[in-house]
Xanthine dehydrogenase, iron-sulfur subunit pucE (Thermobacillus xylanilyticus), 172 residues
Amino acid sequence: MIDRTNPVPVQTGSPVFAFTLNGEPVAVTAPPSRRLLDVLRHDLLLTGTKIGCEIGRCGACMVLLDGKPVNACLTMLYQVEGRRVTTIEGIAGGKDALHGVQRAFLEEGGYQCGYCTPGMIVSAAALLAERPDPTDEEIIEALSGNLCRCTGYGGILRAVRRAAAIGREADG
């Protein structure tokens, strides 16, 4: 069980929602309509998932729900009951490890200000888990829910291509 201080007051009578977060079981007492984004950032103190547009258009809050990318700003707490949530903090699976996509973003300069980077990495990791050798069109489609206002996407596309190559080398 994740042991975190809860800085947000718990509402009396709120139900408990149990789910797996980054490989560890958690239980959160909160109203069912509370956004997953708020639970992650304010209750569980995982601030890698960013607050962006708050209407599901920018992808800054992207997390994996049972391995599929979803916007945490549009996902209510009741929707994650009994499911697996993976944030940018858990994408690599180890405390000091880097996921191949994270390493590739560093090597290819797939970021500028970095605000969109966690969401981009989460979406790219989901793509590569499903399609280890994606085409450029598949990469563009997989990242279509993520907006970057700084890079022009060149470094991001190179990073996803490199991450795919890193995955192929590891498999081969």
User: Anything to note?
Assistant: The radius of gyration is 16 Å.
